[in-house]
Amino acid sequence: MSRVLPPDAPVPDGAVDAGTAPPADRVARLAASGDAVLVTLETAETGPDPGLLAAASVYAWLGASVFRAPAAQADGLRQVLDMVASIKGARPPAATRRGLA
């Protein structure tokens, strides 16, 4: 399960800090070790930042499970992390719809 922390939160016990906006291969390598991976995301945007959310989705897909981000990004970030978990099959989708003709 992914967690979203405030930007000044300490590194949780059992997590490995990948740094701020780390290269994707670093996150994948750390996630392969089996430890929880912390990624810090920064932005000056006061509203949802599409670039930050897109980066978070890639990091989550690669195995990062703990994120530090500004409070203004927290709600959107949680939605992105839920979406990635649903796509990966780690959690059921919030709503399912079938196309019935």
Give a nutshell description of this structure.
With 101 residues, the protein is of the alpha/beta class.
Q: What brief labels describe this structure?
A:
4 strands; globular; alpha/beta; 101 residues
Q: What is the element layout, followed by pairings?
A:
Layout: E1 3-5, E2 15-20, H1 24-32, E3 36-40, H2 50-62, E4 66-68, H3 74-88
Helix pairs in contact: 2-3
Question: Would you kindly provide a written description of the structure presented here, covering whatever features stand out?
Answer:
Strands 1-4-3-2 form a 4-stranded parallel sheet, with helices on one face. It has 3 helices and 4 strands. It is globular, with a radius of gyration of 14 Å. Strand 2, helix 1 and strand 3 form a beta-alpha-beta unit. With 101 residues, the chain is of the alpha/beta class. Helix 2 (50-62) packs parallel to helix 3. It has one domain (3-88).
- Provide the spatial order of strands within the biggest beta sheet: 1-4-3-2
What string gives the helices and strands in order? EEHEHEH
Total beta-strand segments = 4
Main sheet: strands, sense, barrel: 4 strands, parallel
Separation of termini? Answer: 36 Å
The coarse overall form would be globular
Number of helices: 3
Low-confidence stretches: none
Number of domains: 1
Secondary-structure-based class equals: alpha/beta
Round the mean pLDDT to the nearest integer and report it. Answer: 92
